[in-house]
Amino acid sequence: MHQWFRKGDARRFHRVDMTLQSFIIPSSPLEDREIYAIGVNYFPNVVTSKLEALKFATLNSLDRIQDQKTTISGIVNEVIQEIEFFGNCLKDISEGRHPKQDMHYWMQIKEKLSGFEEIKLLLKSSPKTYQYFKLIEDKYLKLLNHLVNAINLSSADDFVVEGRLPVGFKLDEMVKKFQHPQFSKIPLIQTILHLAELLDAYIEVYRQINDDNYLKYFPNEWPLRKVNISASGIAIQTPKRFPLYSHVNVYLYFESSAKTIEFEGRVVDIREMEAEKLERIAINFEFPNGNDQNFLQQEIQKQEVKECMKYSFY
Questions:
Q1: What is the DSSP string of 38-50?
Q2: CA-CA distance, 125 to 129, in Å (whole number)?
Q3: Cα distances (angstroms) measured from residue 146 to each of 38, 86, 116, 143, 259
Q4: CB 14 within 8 A of CB 304
Q5: What was the pLDDT predicted at 63?
Q6: DSSP characters for the chain?
Q7: What is the pLDDT of residue 8?
Q8: Phi, psi of 179 (to 5 degrees)
Q9: Is the pTM of this model over 0.85?
């Protein structure tokens, strides 16, 4: 990735791979929007291809179901529509369109809070299958309620969040169980598994939106990622896309010294990491603060010493 950084800086500063807590956000939000949006694309190709693959896997498994196929098909198609509606709402918000500006749309969103209608058909005939779908509904409604509250409180000046998104649902336990090879040839189980994974993929998009509006002031909660870094720039993998050549603020947190440093930067390269379903972006630091740059250089040197010590034992 030598071509990702300014040629002059590449000679001055050595790059290393490090695991760091980081937070990157555009320097300025989108202008003249109905609802506050920071200007990140949360649905790049790597994400949309993943969503399409999960939907295809769901429908493919559904096609192999024999028992109660008509009923199950109606339920699955309804759930997919509800999940995709949730996703479209996230896309609108991320692009600065406020759902409350369209009262019909806003009413549709609130009507979704009543849950999945079709699953009630299974309550008496297949209570166990009903419970599987009910776990999907429970998680969906919890996150949809969270989103509706955020929309209700937000404006063009602020996207209001109330902490991080909830975790630890019973659905997650079911997904982990259904991922075991013993269930791989059961069409109904695979359909429910892929449907749950599709919901989780959209929730992950919402988590990115929520965190981008919350985490800035909580560095100890920033995600820990492997980056390629020098005192002049950083390359990092992320599930969202920043506009090429856009200005961003890069924050790095070093737990050992409880220190946060900040750099203004410009996105100079973007690559799709299809296998990982991530974007890899390279950022050049522009006019860095000398003290922060020196501190970063010292941390990089410490990392190099650690690497040397590790390999000296071989």
A1: ---BSS-HHHHHH
A2: 9
A3: 19, 12, 17, 5, 32
A4: yes
A5: 97
A6: -GGGS-HHHHHHS--EEEEEEEEEEESSPPSS-SS-----BSS-HHHHHHHHHHHHHHHHHHHT--TTHHHHHHHHHHHHHHHHHHHHHHHHHHTT--GGGSHHHHHHHHHGGG--SGGGGGTTT-HHHHHHHHHHHHHHHHHHHHHHHHHHH--SS-----SSPP---HHHHHHHHHTSGGGTT-HHHHHHHHHHHHHHHHHHHHHHHHHHTTGGG-GGGSPEEEEEEETTEEEEEESSBPPTT-EEEEEEEEGGGTEEEEEEEEEEEEEEETTTTEEEEEEEE-S--HHHHHHHHHHHHHHHHHHHHHHTT-
A7: 45
A8: -80, -5
A9: yes
Question: What does the CA dihedral 120, 122, 125, 126 come to, rounded to 10 degrees?
Answer: -140
**Range 101-105 contact pairs with CB under 8 angstroms and sequence separation of 24 or more:** 101/34
Q: What is the average per-residue pLDDT within 49-62?
A: 98
Please say whether the beta carbons of 236 and 22 come within 8 A. Answer: yes
